[in-house]
Amino acid sequence: MSNNHATTMNGAVRGAAAREYHVREHHPENGTLLGFWIYLMSDCLIFASLFATYAVLGRNYAGGPTGAELFDLQLVAINTAFLLVSSITFGFAMISAQAKKLGAAQLWLGITGLLGVCFLGLELYEFYHLIHEGAGPSRSGFLTAFFSLVGTHGLHVLFGIVWLVTLMFQLGKHGLSVENMRRLSCLSMFWHFLDVVWIFVFTFVYLMGVLP
Prior knowledge:
This protein is mainly α. 84% of the residues lie in helices and 0% in strands. It has helices spanning 2-26, 31-57, 67-70, 73-98, 102-132, 141-174, 178-209. The chain is elongated and about 55 Å long.
């Protein structure tokens, strides 16, 4: 009986070791973060292509309005402030999450989401105003490139907000688990990436666009 018991125990240990090895093989440490970095690099290529397109078409007005005639820098500056402040509030959310303060983390995430919604609202208002003035994306090469670049960034912000809301529900249900902390880190990288891209958009498109 003792030999059978020992054989059974050895089999159980080997089974547990096999299961542990199986999990480690399919979920390598930092594998998710590495994969997300690769995704962000691919996103960089997308925005690089859009910036290059705008660099080529940015002065092709086809007899239509120019950036100096269309852009409201005061409005764009307010919108930029919304997005940059949202990056700060997301940082506070990460600090709270690392301190295991779930309520504070969700509060800062909520504020971040509201700032993102304000950013999108002003951007949609700008698009509506331009189209209402007859400066839609089909008016000239300049406006086609403008709407493509700024609109793609806006879609990324929208996806980020949806992701943020989903993650807030996950935090409410499962708390600050290892998986949710990993997801929060990925979303943090994505959100800060969008802020960096917008700084380039603000400088390259808007500030340089109002120059004669």
